[in-house]
Design a protein that fits this description.
A two-stranded antiparallel sheet has the order 1-2. Helices cover 51% and strands 6% of the residues. By secondary structure, the protein is mainly alpha-helical. It comes from Streptomyces niphimycinicus.
Length: 85
């Protein structure tokens, strides 16, 4: 059955992308464009992925990596003069 009519993506294709590591609708969109046109299939994709349908791969998501790096950099205090010497 088709999940994304705009790009002709099937349930099987979404599951195959999930098996290879695409665990969020954003990652599925990056793999096959599903959900990037009209967006009506995003909820179907979320339902197919479900909770625990594939391992959490948030660390591979560039948005999460960028946010995590920025948060880590902001929380590290600058060294004091005594520590630098």
């Amino acid at each position: 059955m088709y999940v994304c009519s705009c790009f002709g993506i099937t349930e099987q294709q979404v599951r195959q992308h999930a098996e290879t590591g695409a665990c969020t609708p954003r990652q599925i969109a990056g793999a096959c464009k599903a959900g990037t046109d009209c967006g009506s299939c995003v909820r179907k994709i979320q339902a197919l992925l479900g909770r625990g349908a594939c391992p959490r791969r948030e660390a591979l998501d560039p948005v999460v990596l960028t946010t995590a790096a920025a948060t880590a950099a902001a929380s590290v205090p600058a060294p004091t003069a005594a520590e630098a010497a």
